[in-house]
Amino acid sequence: MDQKNVRILLIEDNPDDVFFLRMVLHKADGTTFEIQPVDDLATGIERVKQHNVDVVLLDLTLPDSVGLDTFKAVKAHAREIPIIVLSGVDDETIAVNAVHAGAEDYLVKGRVDSQLITRAIIYAIERTEARKAILRAEEKFRGIFENSVSGIFQTTPEGRYLSVNPALTRIYGYDSPDELISGMTDIARRLYVDANRRNEFVRLMQERGVVQDFESQVHRKDGSVIWISENARAVKDRDGKMEGG
């Protein structure tokens, strides 16, 4: 991880716990932790809204909130800021519920040392950054998918569309992707002029995993016939079985 300075919002009303965490995190090697302590939920939420912290350490028992509702209140405003629960309650049910609600980790006071808390913080930030990268990649792909002038699609081996982009919809003369997907229930017979072309397409996908410059005549919605050239790659499950392409 390249980040060397980590800004921590510590929502904790016990001064002794604040002091302990300062001492523990001061011992960490290679990373400087800047702790911003607040002692109630309302102030913590206001700090979270400013989005100038890298991670939140949260006690679930505060003067103005208790239990999992404390976490949910912070999470509602944290957006992409990771939250680690640091609780005095060693309760597996609460821990599991907190993680299911979106907490990156659940640590119990009195069982935390410098190595454990440092690792939890760094991992929480790295996981959050990884999720952000995935979302950015998905958004980029979605933009390409929606705005490409070339038709993009995914089908099942049996011959149904799973997804189509607007360009393919226009090429085939349909009004919307949903209309094309719902209307084209048998690609071999309803799309290709020669139904055997679909069988050949599937055979090549199964044997090679990829099809390039596969030319065929196809029917548009209005019955007219056009030539297309397809490039496709097989999508396989963990067992190597083809799911689509």
Q: How would you briefly describe this protein structure?
A:
The protein has 245 residues and is of the alpha/beta class.
Q: How many structural domains?
A: 2
Radius of gyration: 27 Å
Distance between the termini: 36 Å
The SS-based structural class is alpha/beta
> How can the largest sheet be summarized?
5 strands, parallel
Explain this structure to me?
- The protein contains 9 helices and 13 strands.
- With 245 residues, it is α/β, with parallel strands linked by helices.
- It has 2 domains: 5-143, Response regulator (Rossmann fold, 3-Layer(aba) Sandwich); 148-244, Beta-Lactamase (2-Layer Sandwich).
- The strands form 5 sheets. The protein has a 5-stranded parallel sheet with strand order 2-1-3-6-7, with helices on both faces.
- The radius of gyration is 27 Å and the shape is elongated.
- The model has no long low-confidence stretch (mean pLDDT 91).
Provide the fold topology.
Blueprint: E1 5-11, H1 15-26, E2 32-38, H2 41-49, E3 55-58, E4 61-62, E5 65-66, H3 68-78, E6 83-87, H4 92-100, E7 105-108, H5 114-147, E8 153-155, E9 161-164, H6 166-171, H7 177-183, H8 187-190, H9 196-208, E10 210-219, E11 225-233, E12 235-236, E13 242-244
Parallel strand pairs: 1-2, 1-3, 3-6, 6-7
Antiparallel strand pairs: 4-5, 8-9, 10-11, 12-13
Tags for this entry?
Beta-Lactamase, alpha/beta, five-stranded parallel beta sheet, two-stranded antiparallel sheet, 245 residues, 2 domains, elongated, Rossmann fold
